[in-house]
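Thread amino acids onto this structure.
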């Protein structure tokens, strides 16, 4: 146990966030910065609008422009943008034998650079106040070790359900007779490093009860785990959208169902596509937006109601939310599922599984799938088709729900843990 505090969330002062990528749109450092509690953000790439790199064209330029947040313009941000971009470009030209080789190498590289930045911050930090180092799972072990040596409190941001999710994905592929999961199985060394992260940190922040239960089943100490949902502040123009639904759906005005995100087996893409095949005669139109990890079957490809959009720029996704009637996330496992909040902020009722963050309230702001099957998905969509008068009130409730997850509110829930006395395991859950 770190000598600084029995719990990193009880009474610690300023925070140092170590973040590889633009996870959750920088919501944790952004919320802390608004409270004057962010000592610094350590990240891999940070591309300000004035940087020449921000003017690069194409998908690569779009990804670079996402590595910045105006709300952190006056924050202390330490990064290695130039070397990171060179590293990624070289990596794109080299085909790795296993996807996990490059993932682990990238995580290790970030940690090495983050520790140097952490030591630089330490030299300039106010030594009279206590500090918390917050780092995300799988790229945190060496950072947490260094933080403990400095006497800092440590918090791990757990991004997913860990080994349980890996087993779920493997089983999905096995049922389909696909050997992909076996070829790309997560190496045991990856999980060994993760278990060290769980041991090294004083507290673990997870974003859903689904993840919390998965970690406890893996033997992670329940008293360390706190459920704090992902935060989301929608663009201002999104909150101004008022949605209107027809009195009935028909072939001239079908119901528009949006599946946006990674089109991969873990997200339920197989079951979703099977559902579309079973609904070819229904007044419904399906839009799939995102990078694909599967091939369309002949039946799905020939379905005139199915529109396979593919990946789009981050700046364009709200156009798809605006033009949909309902959103669906039939995921087999997600640490939270931020698209739920993005959709609700646009007034979309959400159909979601039980295997993600607690956002959907059944028949209030959406529907909860009893199981991730094509049959359950089709039944939920048919319910929406047959009850168009329910969708308007559900849309209004969805918008109100999204406001409960704004950055300031969620940051308050995170910081409130600092003042809480030790809780029994069943009470260490802020999601309810």
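Threaded sequence (432 positions):
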């Amino acid at each position: 146990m770190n000598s600084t505090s029995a719990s990193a969330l009880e009474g610690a002062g300023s925070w140092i966030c170590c973040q590889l990528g633009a996870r959750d749109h920088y919501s944790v450092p952004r919320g802390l910065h608004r409270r004057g509690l962010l000592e610094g953000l350590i990240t891999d790439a940070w591309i300000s609008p004035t940087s020449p790199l921000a003017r690069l064209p194409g998908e690569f330029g779009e990804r670079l422009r996402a590595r910045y947040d105006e709300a952190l313009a006056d924050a202390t941000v330490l990064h290695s943008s130039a070397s990171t971009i060179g590293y990624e470009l070289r990596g794109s030209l080299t085909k790795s034998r296993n996807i996990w080789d490059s993932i682990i190498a990238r995580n290790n590289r970030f940690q090495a650079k983050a520790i140097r930045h952490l030591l630089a911050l330490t030299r300039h930090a106010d030594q009279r106040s206590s500090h918390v180092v917050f780092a995300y799972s799988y790229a945190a072990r060496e950072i947490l070790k260094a933080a403990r040596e400095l006497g800092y409190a440590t918090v791990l941001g757990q991004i997913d359900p860990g080994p349980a999710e890996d087993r779920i994905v493997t089983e999905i592929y096995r049922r389909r007779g696909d050997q992909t999961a076996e070829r790309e199985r997560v190496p045991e060394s990856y999980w060994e490093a993760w278990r060290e992260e769980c041991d090294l940190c004083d507290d673990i922040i997870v974003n859903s009860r689904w993840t919390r239960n998965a970690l406890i089943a893996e033997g992670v100490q329940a008293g360390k785990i706190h459920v704090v949902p992902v935060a989301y502040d929608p663009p201002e123009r999104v909150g101004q959208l008022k949605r209107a639904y027809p009195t009935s759906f028909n072939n001239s005005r079908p119901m528009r169902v949006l599946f946006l995100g990674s089109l991969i087996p873990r997200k339920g893409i197989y079951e979703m596509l099977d559902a579309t095949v079973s609904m070819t005669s229904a007044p419904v139109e399906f839009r799939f937006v995102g990078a694909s990890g599967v091939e369309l079957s002949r039946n799905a490809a020939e379905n005139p109601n199915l529109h396979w959009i593919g990946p789009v720029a981050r700046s364009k996704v709200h156009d798809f939310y605006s033009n949909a009637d309902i959103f669906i996330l039939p995921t087999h496992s997600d640490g939270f599922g931020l698209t739920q909040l993005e959709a609700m902020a646009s007034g979309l009722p959400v159909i979601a599984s039980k295997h993600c963050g607690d956002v959907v309230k059944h028949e209030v702001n959406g529907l909860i799938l009893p199981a991730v099957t094509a049959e359950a998905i089709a039944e939920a969509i048919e319910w929406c088709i047959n009850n168009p008068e329910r969708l308007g009130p559900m849309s209004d409730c969805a918008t109100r729900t999204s406001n409960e997850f704004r950055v300031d509110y969620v940051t308050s829930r995170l910081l409130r843990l600092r003042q809480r006395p030790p809780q029994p395991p069943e009470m260490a859950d802020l999601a309810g």
